[in-house]
Amino acid sequence: MKLVVAIIKPFKLDEVREALTPLGVQGLTVTEVKGFGRQKGQTEIYRGAEYQVSFLPKFKIEVVVPDDLVDGVVEAISTSAKTGKIGDGKIFVLDVERALRIRTGEADAAAL
Fold it and tell me: What is 2-110's CATH number?
């Protein structure tokens, strides 16, 4: 099993979710986060004064999938979250040693 973590622009969330559903992804976790990468934030004007916003709003999506779905999930997220502009985000894939569904006690792949 793998944990796929994606940091994306907030307005791309629905597109990403819609892209993952046909692949058999049954659940995911979304967290509102703030951060910056190469774009180093942005400059905004408020009441005539210029302010540097160093942390931009992003969404972090976390989904645990079987090994055979990883490539499809990464491709679906990458394609649906892409705008072609700086700040589109990142995708990370990590190993998951164990999963457990608390309600039923199912473990590993059955718990997904």
Answer: 3.30.70.120
